Fold ZMYND11.
Amino acid sequence: MGTVRRYTHPARLQPLWDAIVSIRNQRQVPNRERIAAFMKRKSPGELPTLDETLRLAIQDNCVYTKTSKGHKGVKAGVEQESYRAPDSDLEGDGHDWYCFECHENGDVILCSTCHRVYHRVCLKEEFLEAEVFSCPVCAVKNLLQIQVEEDDVWRQSYLCFRKMDLTIMEAKAKEQEYQSLEDVVGAVHNPLADLARQMLRDCLYDIAEIRLCSDCYRMSNEKADKHWFCQPCDPPHELVYAKQKGFPFWPAKVLRIHENMYDVRFFGGYHER
């Protein structure tokens, strides 16, 4: 049976907090009128839902009401209802407030082995049929543990120079024991290790791309519209005409310059270095 952990949608809660904090920083009372004016400028689409968002945020204890006196203008000294954002960290109760799959609020079920929660519609039927709910992430984590028969434990010392699975990695990460990427990599000499090494190569490639430009990496994966490649990054890249052997000069953006060598991404249907 599910439970509602939070009623306020996260995308509506954050602009509301921004409005309250900004108005208070101007030494004004964050009443509904000022919050509405702020959100009309910053988040026009949220204005029709402001009253509902305020009501739900108060119900979730994410926003508090307070009677305050005005400091400026015609309302100076006049008591009026105002709103306050939390001013301290929230002590959790062991579970998240939003669905791990879609990141939205609503009726969710709690994983019995971790902090994650899910809407029923966000889960496959096989997880709903279990008597005790364990989420998809925990199911995968359990599958990826190195399973060794008790009589074959000795084999580990011959084939695994250093045993490593997701459970061990999670425990070490919580204890902040990792000092470098190499600390994560174990040495396992069997065919399954080839898959692990390929995954590592993919991760290292992605990390290198993120270091070059996190905006380019994000937009190339999101592809929010057909002109994603033309969206400016922060800071924007230098634009040049570059060419590869056998091809004409073509417009491109520079991602890196190293010893007079330019690492570029070409504009057009195919984007190559």
About this structure: The first helix runs from residue 10 to 25. Residues 216 and 233 are 7 Å apart (CA to CA). The chain has a mean pLDDT of 79.
